[in-house]
Amino acid sequence: MMHWWSSLNKMEKKGLQISFAWLFAIIVGGVILFLAVFISIKLIGTEQTTQDAKIGKEIGVLLNPLETGFESGKTTSLTMPTDTRIYNKCNNKGNFGRQIIQISQQSFKKWTETDIDVGFSNKYIFSDDYVEGKKFYIFSKPFEFPFKVADVIYITSSLKDYCFVDAPEDIEEEIEDLKQENIFVENCPNQSVMVCFSGGNCEVNVNYNSGLVSKRGENVYFESDALMYAAIFSGKEIYECQVKRLMQRTEQLTLLYKDKANFVSRTGCDSNLNQDLIQLNNLVKNLDDSTELIAISNVVEDIEDKNDYAQCRIW
After folding, report:
1. Strands 130-144 and 74-91, sheet pairing
2. 55 confidence band (pLDDT: 50, 70, 90)
3. Strand-pair category, 74-91 with 98-107
4. Exposed (0-12), middle (13-18) or buried (19+): which is 67, by Cβ within 10 Å?
């Protein structure tokens, strides 16, 4: 009887030892699995952040061929492998300010978060705060004021169509020649963003003669078709910031052209532009917002006329 009880006691102790070993193995295995998943998520997140920054730089490189140098616009498209948001950010600190792009992509049905900004001092992108989709259209036009200042770039998503209603003939012709798949002047798809040039209950209203675009209850002003498109495709905050940056660039260019005018005059060929360029420099340097563009445009037109008829043209 004692032998049987002793054997049973040993079996219970052995069973407890085995159970504890299994329990210990399960706990250790669970910890290892948790760490593996945690590290994998961190690595995926780090890799995604790196990928988002890389895409931002690639977009900047893609924009280079769109810097036209000509009157006509250019367009291209950009297709992503997954749903993507391109965030457009702008600041006007320093001499030229900075264009900032931030990319977020959908991963495991969630949008990636990154604080990595990709910046350029020589790019001027007009769009909503962010554009979303897999395919994007990128359209570019040169901005002259009165000389070539920069190429301005507009980014829209293939998920949003624009219908230009009663646009001036030259605008209609430009859009038709552009052949961008989400901008229409006739046979517009349903749910298009209506851009009206003759009034009406439209999401965007353009007063072409007055240089005014009304959108979402807010007004911005433009000079030249390049800024008209910019006002149509972008939010007010982005638009005003980029206009300020364009004026900062104009300010620096007026100084260069003033020096060139002085140099040319010393060779006996006066351009008569020195004082006008100083005036333009002061105006663009002190610009607060787009409402001042119309007043500055009068000076710009005078400079343009003088340069066109000058004995020695400066640009």
Report:
1. antiparallel
2. low
3. antiparallel
4. middle
Rounded Cα distance between 308 and 297, Å, is 16
| Segment 119-178, tens digit of pLDDT | 899 999 999 999 999 999 999 999 999 999 999 999 999 999 999 999 999 999 999 999
CA angle 74, 120, 286 (to 5 degrees): 95
91 within 8 A of 121, measured Cβ to Cβ: no
- What's the CA gap between 56 and 86, in Å, rounded? 8
> Per-residue pLDDT for 38 more than 50?
no
State how far the Cα of 47 lies from the Cα of 303, in Å rounded to an integer. Answer: 52
How many whole angstroms separate alpha carbon 289 and alpha carbon 227? 13
Q: CA–CA separation, 155 vs 142, rounded Å?
A: 15
Question: Tell me, what DSSP letter sits at residue 167?
Answer: -
The DSSP letter of residue 139 is: E
How many CB atoms neighbour CB 96 within 10 A? 18
Angle between helices 274-285 and 293-309 (to 10 degrees): 160
Nearest to 280 by CA among 252, 305, 307: 252
Report DSSP letters for 72-130, one per residue: S-EEEEEEEEEEEEEEEEEE--TTT-EEEEEEEEEETTEE------EEESS--EE--SE
pLDDT, greater one: 6 or 296: 296
Of 100, 98, 24, the closest CA to residue 56 belongs to 100
